[in-house]
Amino acid sequence: MQPNFSIQDNIAIVTGASKGIGYGLAKSLAAAGAKVAVMARSLDLLEQLVQEIEESGGFAKAYELDIRNVEQIRTVFGQVAEDLGRLDILVNNAGLGEEMAAEDVTEAYWDEMIDVNLKGVFFSCQAAGRIMLKQGSGKIVNVSSQVSVVGIPGGSVYCASKGGVNQLTKTLALEWSGRGVNINAVGPTFIYTPGTAERLDTPEFRDGVLARIPAGRIGTILDVAGAVIYLASPASDLVTGTLLLVDGGWTAQ
């Protein structure tokens, strides 16, 4: 017998899929055989992603979603289940990561960061959970961060929001795992994407990051995708309520 890592023909939602990690995760899930519903605020930004997945022989369908709009979350997730027949996987990737010194944080900045990174994650979990609980099965993977367990200067609100994601993941696992729905989180380190390239291509910044990563390299989207696909597959059926750090050893220090 061998562990089953297959997600072939699973129906998966990826939020925040128009760029960065979400874009890459959607492509990896599709390459692994999942039928992927990709979501972002602008359908225009998803067109290239859907085209790339379909040209590679995969299946993708785009849905407009503002993760701050709870009613829209419920409507769109329900539409996916209606369109594609069920919902097997949710990858809660949508998030904001802008840094700001604590003394400069405004109420508007706080509210937007928490609305997207925590409130949106909860209500996406709830909407997916309601569908999955009726089915008696499902996998939810929340994209957290290594700074959900360690701090970084300028990250007071971001770190707090991701710490909240970890606690949410644990609590929902206690409520839902006995009913067939597993929920876990992944915590990436700095991942090289078009959005992080400017900073990570700056030698001083890059050297500072690498000095904190015992593995000696910056993370890639494929590093995160490997963790997500594992947590979405039957191989992880006894794994729930946990944070899988993809950080090259950053938080082991």
UniProtKB/TrEMBL annotation:
Q: What is the lineage of its organism?
A: Bacteria, Bacillati, Bacillota, Bacilli, Bacillales
Task: State the protein's name.
Answer: SDR family oxidoreductase
Q: Which organism is it from?
A: Paenibacillus chibensis
Q: Which InterPro entries match?
A: NAD(P)-bd_dom_sf, Sc_DH/Rdtase_CS, SDR, SDR_fam
Report TM segments: none
Report the superkingdom from the record. Bacteria
Family under the similarity heading: Belongs to the short-chain dehydrogenases/reductases (SDR) family.
